[in-house]
Amino acid sequence: MAKENGPFNPEKYIDLIVFNIMIAVCFGESVELDDPDFMRFMKLRTEANEMIGKERALSKICSPSCIRYGQQISTELSVKR
Predict the structure, then answer these.
(1) Relative to the CA of 9, which of 15, 55, 62, 67 has its CA 20 to 30 Å away?
(2) Exposure string (b/e) for 18-52, b if CB count within 10 Å is 16 or more?
(3) Where are the alpha helices (DSSP H) in the chain?
(4) Where is the signal peptide (predicted)?
């Protein structure tokens, strides 16, 4: 964060810090926030979240009827709110 000049989005840093804490709790050690393996993991996690959000990943593991059912439930839940 010290490298940033002016306003910036802290989301990346918050994610890195939270996952680093989880690693410390689960495995008893922490990693440097600029560790190449850690950065690769975070990049893959972000890409997976984007795929799932766009339903591309679901289309590869679920049948079309399963996806339609999930969309129907999601729609019904959002209407009830």
Answers:
(1) 55
(2) ebbeeeeeeeeeebeeeeeebeeebeeeeeeeeee
(3) 11-27, 36-53, 56-61, 64-80
(4) none
CB-CB contact of 58 with 70 (8 Å) = yes
**By three-state DSSP, how is residue 26 classified?**
helix
Evaluate whether 31 touches 23 at the Cβ level (below 8 Å): yes
Half-sphere exposure of 24 toward its Cβ, with a 13 Å CA cutoff?
10
Question: From the first residue on, what is the mean pLDDT of each consecutive set of 10 residues in the chain (81 residues)?
Answer: 73 83 87 84 80 62 67 68 47
Nearest to 16 by CA among 6, 4, 24, 5: 24
Q: What pLDDT is attached to residue 43? A: 85
